[in-house]
């Protein structure tokens, strides 16, 4: 197939993914991403074989599709095939997207999300909950500590030469929020599969930390729309009514700036889960603090039970 035809196909697929996000961000996007992945894998294999670099257009299309692929794996209920360890070419392409993709997601964190989702899929399918026979828990903890060790300030500083604006503070805050959100996401996977695991951080504190980081960005800031994924994680995790109200306002503000269906649907999901979690937590009228009951409600399990593929970006 001619090179121009491949670029045209990728551009169409990228537009179709965008249309799905504008519509709702649920369901059909995965077919477009699966198709894009097949094309990209062949392109990367071909590039490795002949040493021909991607054109700027192709690099942009491929890198942005790869970001959506990784983000999509975080809340996909149907199986999304993952290729295992990323090649140097794939990681380089993810790094290319750091400065121009709407999520401003650090490339080092994206594979951790996808690897965590894969552990959840495999372990959930085979039900290997015995840590003596399943290395999955060790792998998941390694992912968690890799996310925890990520340095947002260094990342934002290194990104500045490639960033379209002088935005060091905002890039740092977005990266801090993403790092903490990935830690929460991986923690919930670990606790869903191995509930007795002792983790080093209080997840409620981490959820509040995400909100603190995101509070540095306001409507009108160039990176404001990059706050959706970590805000969604904070909303899923927090049991504090004030923090939930903050997350709700954030998605309402995102809707005003970019009225995409994914924003509306994300808020709808949060409200559904907040309502459902009333069966798993108790509210005291004295100090408005939530306390977990013995069933240890986990939003990862609840999202899977809804049976919908979500793409939050």
TrEMBL record:
Q: Which GO terms describe its molecular function?
A: DNA-binding transcription factor activity; transcription cis-regulatory region binding
Its GO CC terms are: nucleus
Q: Does the keyword Signal apply?
A: yes
Matching InterPro entries, A to Z? Fun_TF
One GO BP annotation is: positive regulation of transcription by RNA polymerase II
What are the boundaries of the signal sequence? 1-24
Q: Which Pfam families match?
A: Fungal_trans_2
Q: Where in the cell is it found?
A: Nucleus
UniProt keyword list: Nucleus, Signal
The cross-references to PANTHER family, in alphabetical order and at most eight, read:
ACRIFLAVINE SENSITIVITY CONTROL PROTEIN ACR-2, TRANSCRIPTIONAL ACTIVATOR PROTEIN UGA3
Q: What is this protein called?
A: Acriflavine sensitivity control protein acr-2
Please report the organism this UniProt entry assigns to the protein: Fusarium musae
